[in-house]
């Protein structure tokens, strides 16, 4: 089996503005299919990401989950055709995972980040490989807001990398690696959808909304346990764990290993992670490109300016920009 990781790029679109961050208006936020926006390189964002993934030489051929009508002539990779809305994108992801890679670690990336090929190599070689024997691997990016440029407004979370470590300002990374058979895909997919939908709200509001919307999954879990003559408890234990973590976060006592342990309790399949060094492993990196997803026009303009400046240094003209939008919405 190849050492290269499969990688799936989520490339839906969103015409709904769920939350307007402080300091922005609805017109400041990008809508539609952000991955289809053209860059000065001549490629769209998703197409540029595909090329950088390929250049990194750390992944198998990328698969893009999104509408073929939008991306068919924009990306040089397999397209798993969907309508592009949120539910269809997550459903497409689930089908690929269960049909093609049920027992292999798979990388899943947003379509609107642009790490360099060197960034991908560093993330995989330095941060992921030492923790590759895990059911789920995720990264948090340590950076101060002024280091994030126009992306400094994005939600970040002060946490310690270890119980005796310094308090760091951490941004969530936008690349996950996990083994589908070790993860509760029903809960994971619901969380993925809700986390995207409420991503720019306050942490407290996100916790409340997500918890209320997954109560049904916990209740169904308990009913299955009762039917199997097992002791129920998810309907109480799961939300208790979430709010306990929130309290520890508010008093600045939560650590990255604490978060990994809670994710293990919440979304990993009991018994499927035996033999792994870590059911859930989390790395702290300084690779800011994995935290800088493109949500606003100012973030897009920053990337366009950087691309035009680079092309200007190479003596090549910059092509015009274009974007695609649809009434169907999703991540």
Order of helices and strands: EHEHEHEHEEEHHHHHEH
Q: What value does the average pLDDT take?
A: 85
Gross geometry: globular
Helix-and-strand structural type: alpha/beta
Relative strand content: 5-15%
**Count of individual beta strands:** 8
Q: What's the total helix number?
A: 10
Rg calc: 20 Å
| Helical coverage, percent range | 25-40%
Low-confidence stretches: 316-331
What does the largest sheet look like? 8 strands, mixed
User: What is the distance, rounded to the nearest whole angstrom, between the alpha carbons of the first and last residues?
Assistant: 31 Å
Report on the structure:
By secondary structure, the chain is α/β, with parallel strands linked by helices. Helices cover 38% and strands 15% of the residues. It has ten helices and eight strands. Strands 1, 2, 3, 4, 5, 6, 7 and 8 form an eight-stranded mixed beta sheet that branches. Strand 2, helix 2 (68-71) and strand 3 (78-81) form a beta-alpha-beta unit. The protein is globular and about 65 Å long. Residues 316-331 have low confidence and may be disordered.
């Amino acid at each position: 089996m190849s050492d290269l990781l499969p990688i799936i790029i989520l490339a839906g679109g969103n015409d709904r503005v769920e939350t307007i961050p402080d300091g922005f208006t609805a017109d400041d936020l990008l809508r539609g299919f952000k991955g289809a926006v053209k860059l000065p390189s001549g490629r769209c964002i998703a197409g540029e990401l595909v090329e950088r993934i390929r250049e990194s030489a750390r992944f198998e051929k990328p698969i893009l989950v999104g509408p073929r009508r939008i991306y068919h002539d924009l990306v040089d990779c397999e397209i798993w055709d969907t309508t592009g809305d949120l539910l269809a994108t997550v459903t497409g992801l689930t089908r690929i995972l269960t049909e093609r890679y049920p027992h292999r670690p798979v990388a899943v990336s947003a379509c609107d980040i642009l790490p360099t090929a060197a960034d991908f190599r560093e993330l995989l070689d330095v941060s992921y490989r030492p923790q590759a024997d895990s059911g789920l691997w995720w990264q948090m990016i340590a950076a101060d807001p002024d280091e994030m440029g126009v992306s400094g407004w994005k939600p970040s979370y002060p946490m310690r990398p270890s119980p005796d470590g310094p308090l760091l300002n951490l941004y969530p990374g936008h690349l996950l690696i996990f083994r589908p058979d070790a993860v509760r895909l029903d809960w994971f997919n619901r969380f993925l959808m809700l986390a995207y939908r409420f991503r720019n709200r306050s942490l407290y509001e996100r916790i409340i909304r997500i918890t209320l919307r997954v109560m049904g999954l916990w209740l169904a879990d308990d009913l299955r346990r009762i039917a199997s003559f097992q002791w129920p408890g998810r309907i109480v234990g799961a939300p208790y764990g979430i709010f306990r973590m929130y309290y520890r976060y508010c008093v600045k006592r939560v650590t990255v290993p604490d978060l990994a342990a809670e994710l293990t309790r919440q979304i990993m399949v009991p018994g499927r992670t035996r033999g792994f060094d870590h059911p859930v492993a989390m790395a702290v990196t300084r690779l800011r490109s994995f935290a800088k997803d493109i949500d606003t026009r100012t973030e897009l303009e920053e990337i366009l300016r950087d691309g035009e400046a680079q092309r200007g240094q190479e003596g090549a003209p910059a092509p015009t920009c274009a974007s695609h939008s649809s009434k169907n919405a999703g991540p």
